[in-house]
Design brief:
It contains nine helices and two strands. It is an all-alpha fold. It folds into three domains: 115 residues, no CATH class; 82 residues; 84 residues, no CATH class.
Amino acid sequence: MSDTTTNTTPAIPLQDLVTGYPKLAGQMGLIPETTIFRSFAALQAQNILYLQAELVSLEKRLRKCELIDSQDLNGLKSLYSLDWYWLSQSGDDGEEQWKLVQQIGAKLREYNEALIQQNIILAFPGPSKWDLNYVQHYLATKDMGPLALVGDDAPIWGSTKEPKSFCPDLITLRPRHNEDTFSRWVTERAIIKLFKCGCHRLMKVSRIHGVPGFKDSTLLQVTFWITTVIASLLPIASISVLYYVHSMLAKLAIIATFNVVVSLCLMAFTTAKRLDVFAVAATFSAVQAVFVGANSNNSPCSNGGN
């Protein structure tokens, strides 16, 4: 990520941070897209399963206790299911039903909180290949030791030697704004190729990161210009080809071909849904058909018999 200023002092001096977690955390602070962590999806689900099993057991005990208390016609226990007041007052006597109600209430709060947290965590997207690759290479730099992390959590992000050995339940707190497949390809693959070609040497050093780079916003702006040009040229190209073709079968084939091209462009360059793809393709086909009909009526062959 580049910056237009000439100051090369990083905003967060990583050289002052201790090697290991402090320095890795500092790097994540510089590039929020690299805040990649495990979601522990399996452990989260297992915890919820335990809570669920415990609630099922408590529910079974409560229903049994309710049935027994309702059959006590000579005492107050038969009123527990009819009037909450008498049930709440039974707590001083250590009644089992009231204790179960309180225990279930506390366990339900814990269970609901776990469900809500799991729902939020599952909504976090996975990291991009570029950011995960960046973390792997940073862990292998001299600043980090290399491979300064030696605990059981060291293999979480994988490594440069085994880039695909990362944990499958990784999430990122700040995903990149890749709006379409083409933009995602540019930000993840094209940047790597630009670095390999040495193009980053022409960039100014970032004031924040202390290294040269490319801004996502700049790359996305470039992809926007490219998609705009393509969107403008496709209708012109279609009409131009149809104008010089006289065979009706050839014209139908050209219309079908351009419809496929437009649909593929919508899938690659936009975030259009299936319904949008069908709508645009149908509209584009109708425009081409209207042009073919108008061109056929105005052609010399159609007026030859007059």
